[in-house]
Amino acid sequence: AAGLAIANRMDAQARGMNVAIRNANDGISLAQTAEGALGKVTDMMQRMRELAVQAANASNTSTDRTSLNAEFTQLAAEVDRTLLSTRFNGQAILAGSAGGLQFQIGANNAATDQLMVTTTNMATAATITAVTTATTAVITGTTAANANLMITALDTAIDTINSERATYGAVQNRFEAVIANLQISAENQTAAKSRIVDADFAKETAALTRAQILQQAGTAMLAQANSAPQGVLALLRG
Known about the structure:
Blueprint: H1 2-55, H2 62-85, E1 87-88, E2 91-92, E3 100-104, E4 114-118, H3 126-132, H4 145-237
Antiparallel strand pairs: 1-2, 3-4
Helix pairs in contact: 1-2, 1-4, 3-4
């Protein structure tokens, strides 16, 4: 009974670890989704910076800057939309609930069985809204002043995006390490459980075999005892 109880506890741990492995794989998928979206945002911001640099040139007229601003504002709107709409399993991961993401990466309820990923709500970050807000994110004007401001603002925004991408990249690496450790632990738990169960099975099999042998021996002795009087009677008759 004691062996069975231990084996059941080990089985529960191994099963929990296997679920935690799936959780960690989900974490990797989430991080990859976020990092991919941020990569697209970076590309758009780089194009916005090109437009701002072009608009900052003194040879441009107000009309020229207005034309350049048309593409600039469309890109700014798409950056905002991407940050707001990027989801994983229905949850916003760059806006809304973003900020703290807790993953269950162990079989139990200990603090070490959870992994908290601290992220930035990119849709509301001041460095991002500085280049996405329609009323301020412009490169128009009779001079290059607005365009120059946007160059600086975009450099800061791109740095913010790069930092967040680095966070998600580091998270992916950590999840991969977690999975490798969980796989080893789950295999060891399963092996230990098997040794206990196999040992109990061997013991019970030996006990059953012994009981069967004793039963067969008893039956044979009883048969011999019953046949003895018959032999005596046969001799007397002879």
